[in-house]
Amino acid sequence: MANLLKKKNIKILGAIIVVFVIALIVRFWKLSQYPVSLSMDEVSVGYNAYSILKTGRDEFGELLPLAFKSVGDYKPPVDIYLTVPSIALFGLNEFAVRFHVALIAALSSILFIFFIRSMRLSWLSAIMTGLWVALVSWGVHFSRGSFAGLTAMILTTLGVWLFIKWTKDKNKLQLIGSAIAFSVAVWGYHAERVFVPLLVLVLFYIYKDRIKFTKPETKKHIVYFALVVLVFAIPFLNLTFFTPAIKERAISTSIIREQSLTGILHIEGYENVKELIFDNNAYLIFRHWLGKYFNYFDLRLWFWKGMQFTPPGYSGLGFLFLVDLPIILMGIYSLIRSRNKEIRKLALFWFFAGPLPASLTMNEQHPLRALVWFPFFALLMASGFEFIAAKLKRPKMLALYVVVLFINFVYFFDIYTNHSPRFFSEYWQYGYKDIAIHACENKDKYDNVFISESFGVKSDITGLPHLYVLFYCKYDPVEYLDTRTTENIRIKRPYWKQDRYEYPNSLFIAAPWDFPIEEVPEEMIVKKIYFKSGELGFIFVDTSKGNAK
């Protein structure tokens, strides 16, 4: 019996390793190339981490800040500090910026296996869920970029797993670890600031019979938990009430700012009693929020269009794969019928609370802000796998699912690596890397290098080219903090009729419509950059060439 048990453990360990290797390959394959360009947030994270590494200060000179002002959006600190070691190892480049999230995400496939196992489900169901985590589009996309929401979601899951372990083992280190994971998750991303406090309260309620609050040892452990939370909460409360960091971020993304809502609110008071009672602002805001909240339960979002990798009218992808639908349905049925009240209660809470933080913000159906919902779907998938293997007793069906899962993954990766870059490269600020490198390599040839912050094929999008210049030119943070300039590389939109004469030995880099191009002599255009769609994105105009007057 002991030998059989040992062989079984070896098989389980082997399966876990296979899942982890798959997760690693999926996340690290051409990591620097996909997504197609570093986003504005990523170059900001990268340069701030680089500045912390070199000086201990952010790009504005703040010493070890707990909220990074960046471009006024006050980024959470966790991912920036986690980026520091990888930049120290690999240098200031795309791989270093994305490395830690990809690694943490790959490790999360193992975490989810143990998380599901802690819910008293079989090893088979847990390993199948780990494989699903390794391949599903929702998780893969956000693990291949510096997305703070993914790190925070994984920390939240870690906190739940450690909490459940503590209710079984009564090891105080597990509860302390849970408190740390939850607290860092709150510091890690904005959605967790709403979700995690609710989750912790619900966990204590769901597991109250196991916890046994009256026991002296339990009381002592809970005091440790509270003290850890307090250590992390005090500076957070200070940021909330005594600095603009938390407040300005909340205001900038609040549902209240949506034009579809502000257009119907009563700004100058109510015209009559009927409006005051039945059509007041509180009711209008609630109705607007409720619509946004229920939009997250749209099955088209889950299975067809949620990831927004393609424009309307093209084949798309949801948060989940279509092959997951029957597993999800069986998981719902299994949870309803399950005698495991704890997993049912936790899944029910996560089902309703998961989209709550995202629904309170601007933008419809935001997959990153809804990422805290991800573990609920993992619970559903695990319950579906358990139903097939234990209730239907047809484990071969799971083998068929794995085959179709990989087919779905290939379809997703084709869209992700071929079609999405073609449709949306401009929205990833594609081209700014080449612009920054060219500007740095050629700045000594010109009196000025001007880069426009506006770009796009058909729309006037505003970017942050100065961040790309800082990042790709690897400006020394010590010098930048002292001068706050990038030498003769400046951010300025061209006013061509005047600038061509005012700056006779300069390089202008901007969208073709920003000049406009028909007014620029061909001999002055020294370089062109095209988006992945084939559309002309940027032109480089040298005023020293041709007849400038």
What this model shows, in words?
With 549 residues, this protein is mostly helical. It folds into 2 domains: 2-259 and 286-423, no CATH class; 429-542, no CATH class. The protein has helices at 2-28, 40-55, 78-90, 94-118, 123-135, 137-142, 148-169, 172-188, 190-206, 208-211, 216-242, 245-253, 259-262, 273-278, 281-295, 299-305, 324-337, 341-353, 356-359, 374-391, 395-424, 432-442, 465-472, 477-483, 496-502, and strands spanning 448-451, 454-455, 461-462, 489-491, 506-510, 525-530, 536-542. The strands form 2 sheets. It has a 5-stranded mixed beta sheet with strand order 4-1-5-7-6, covered by helices on one side. The protein has a two-stranded antiparallel sheet with strand order 2-3. α4 (94-118) packs parallel to α7. The longest helix has 30 residues, at 395-424. It is globular and about 80 Å long. It starts with a helix and ends in a 7-residue tail after the last strand.
Secondary structure blueprint with pairings:
Blueprint: H1 2-28, H2 40-55, H3 78-90, H4 94-118, H5 123-135, H6 137-142, H7 148-169, H8 172-188, H9 190-206, H10 208-211, H11 216-242, H12 245-253, H13 259-262, H14 273-278, H15 281-295, H16 299-305, H17 324-337, H18 341-353, H19 356-359, H20 374-391, H21 395-424, H22 432-442, E1 448-451, E2 454-455, E3 461-462, H23 465-472, H24 477-483, E4 489-491, H25 496-502, E5 506-510, E6 525-530, E7 536-542
Parallel strand pairs: 1-4, 1-5
Antiparallel strand pairs: 2-3, 5-7, 6-7
Helix pairs in contact: 1-4, 1-5, 2-3, 2-4, 2-23, 3-4, 4-5, 4-7, 5-20, 7-8, 7-9, 8-9, 8-11, 9-18, 17-20, 18-20, 20-21, 22-23
